[in-house]
Design a protein that fits this description.
- 37% of the residues are buried.
- Helix 1 packs across helix 6.
- The strands form three sheets. The protein has a five-stranded parallel beta sheet with strand order 3-2-1-4-5, with helices on both faces. A five-stranded antiparallel beta sheet has the order 10-9-8-13-14. The chain has a four-stranded antiparallel beta sheet with strand order 6-7-12-11, with no helix packed on it.
- The termini are far apart.
- The chain has three domains: 142 residues, HUPs (Rossmann fold), CATH 3.40.50; 132 residues, Argininosuccinate synthetase, chain A, domain 2; 37 residues, no CATH class.
- The protein is built from twelve helices and 14 strands.
- It is of the alpha/beta class and 404 residues long.
Amino acid sequence: MKGKKALKIVLAYSGGLDTSVILRWLIEKYNSEVIAFVADLGQGENLQIIEKKAYKTGASKVFIKDLKEEFVKEYIFPMLRANAVYEGYLLGTAIARPLIAKAQMEVAKQVEADAVSHGATGKGNDQVRFELTYYSIDPTIRVIAPWRDWVFRSRSDLINFAKKYGIPVPATKSKPYSSDRNIFHVSHEGGILEDPGHEPPEEIFELITPPEKATNTPEIVEIGFSKGDPCSVNGKNLSPIRLLDALNKIGARHGVGRADIVENRFVGMKSRGVYETPGGTILHSAHKALESITMDREVMHLRDSLIPKYAELVYYGFWFSPEREMLQLAIDNSQKNITGTVRLKVYKGNVYILGRYSSNSLFTPDLATFEADTVYDQRDATGFIKLNALRLKLANMINKKFKT
């Protein structure tokens, strides 16, 4: 029996196993017109092939949007300004979902769709990220989440369904892991990666050379920043996309940016993710190095206390929440003096900071030196220490009083 009819459904479509099956399933179950939306986030795929596949699978229309510039400038760079890391993960997939969902909702409005749909499973974080964004834009939108509704329970089931309808898919029963790629990173999870005790097979990696096979010659790189955002590589000003692309290539050929993490999902379970983030890893290290000489101590400590919450909001899918926007204002204010250059070396999977330079530097050699100076009287430290020790002395006196 057919389910409730939806006149038009806009599906966030990647051309992978899940969304390929979902496209056909939506048509069969709801007897609906399904419109495929494809976000170009620099995933390195032939989007014309994906478009043809969507039409062949039954899509009535296919919308492809180039979101790369917006993705890097308005999503990745703000996140990097915050030094955001969730349990060791640089949030490459998490940061992409709100942008995809926002653009999908724009298409839904354009075609006057009745519903939107996505390929996220009922066990993962992406379902939350997509749907929180949908509802933040249109609280009345109808959301169809097939993984929470259909009878399929595994990707093997999906492969069988795809074969039934002649849908070509990249996953197989022998290699059932899932990969997601954009200009910032590649993530791998599921299938053969679900045993956290087993090393990920080398064949899954798409970008990064194994460190042991990387070139034996280290590479020196200089990255320029303006108000917390990277703007140049080796003295050459680059657009956000070209800059990230250049650093991705440098990091990848030197084995930089692999991560194997067991993380805590928002829905309550632990999961294993294997990630490749070459350029992002370099930028994260360089940004922190520049902050070390340009950011006030108390501002840094306060900002650092906000990083776990900020990263959690991104990971959980609250990009369009008022609290994330509030934190972003505070973080961006902390970046007003983060301008300068960082010199680093990449070699065999590692990033080594060699130097940092800024006209806004708070590092004063005359004050920090261990040699003789005329600007700092070391005797002043005596009173400073005594004042800070006062409460410790009082606590000691009280403890002795109660022990007697």
